[in-house]
Specification:
Blueprint: H1 13-38, H2 45-73, H3 79-108, H4 120-137
Helix pairs in contact: 1-2, 2-3, 2-4, 3-4
Length: about 140
């Protein structure tokens, strides 16, 4: 099976771009915009900022994996590359979230997401659940 014979099985670049625009648009609408309109009494300044930073971390993690890591490292015929990319995805997600929510937010907004004494190991394992979907989608 060559690509030319089965090119109808592959998505075109334009289709991929539109799919990503739709996905991230609906994700932004559901995770950031909708709470402002339907649950304004449950939101405060900190929660609003954290929802936005969480969205930024997810989109950055996705495109780091999708554009740079997967094309260079992942090989479908080698299982260890999938394991490596998955672990890298978890680490990069947790690292970006730590950078944004624990180092940049305190300087720019005066608060952080976690207690100042939270260890990196706890932070990493707490982010495994949050980063798995983004890593798999990439």
């Amino acid at each position: 099976m060559t690509f030319e014979k089965n090119k109808h099985l592959h998505m075109k670049r334009k289709q991929i771009i539109w799919l990503q625009i739709l996905y991230w648009g609906f994700d932004f609408l559901g995770s950031v915009i909708t709470p402002f309109y339907f649950f304004p009494e449950e939101l405060n300044y900190q929660i609003s900022v954290l929802k936005i930073t969480y969205f930024i971390v997810r989109i950055l993690s996705f495109y780091i994996l999708y554009l740079f890591v997967f094309p260079k490292i992942f090989r479908p015929d080698r299982l260890y590359t999938a394991v490596f990319v998955f672990l890298f995805g978890l680490l990069s997600f947790a690292g970006l979230r730590y950078l944004l929510e624990e180092l940049i937010l305190p300087v720019t907004f005066g608060f952080r997401n976690y207690n100042e004494n939270t260890g990196l190991a706890y932070y990493f394992f707490d982010n495994v659940n949050k980063s798995t979907l983004t890593t798999f989608i990439a």
